[in-house]
Amino acid sequence: MHSDIKPIQPKDITTIATVYVTTYKQIYNNEAWTQKTAYDMLSYWYQHFPDLAFKAVVNKQIVGAFLAGIKPWWDGYHLIDGELFVLPSYQKKGIGTQLLKHMFTFAQEKYQALTWDMYTYNCSPFPLQWYKDIGFEISKDWTLLSADIACVLKHISLKK
Q: Which CATH number fits domain 4-158: 3.30.1490.100, 3.30.365.10, 3.40.50.10330, 3.40.630.30?
């Protein structure tokens, strides 16, 4: 299915937040996104990296988006983190691939970006297998860490 990939405009963030919440409620129900939290997160990406924010449009409807950041690294520029998502009813139709291709081409041309450093779920085959199928590899050098800040502060204060 063909989609038009266009730059996101500020007025699109509310609609894109709805697409994000809908996608996560149907596919990734272990995260409780609301319209407000999705709007805040997407606004963060847009405000910091407005040129790295693209939407997929089918029949004048926004059906997906890709927002990411860019960071200088020791070997050149890397796309970092971000969000790539497509409404479930439009998945497996090539729209995610179109968004990915557009973002990567733009980032290579503007920033000479070399890689996209990101993370995804490993608790189900999708989307991890999709990423592997198109050439992504699981990094053997990196581990994603996460911590409850209050818990860490408690542990630190107990060690004094």
A: 3.40.630.30
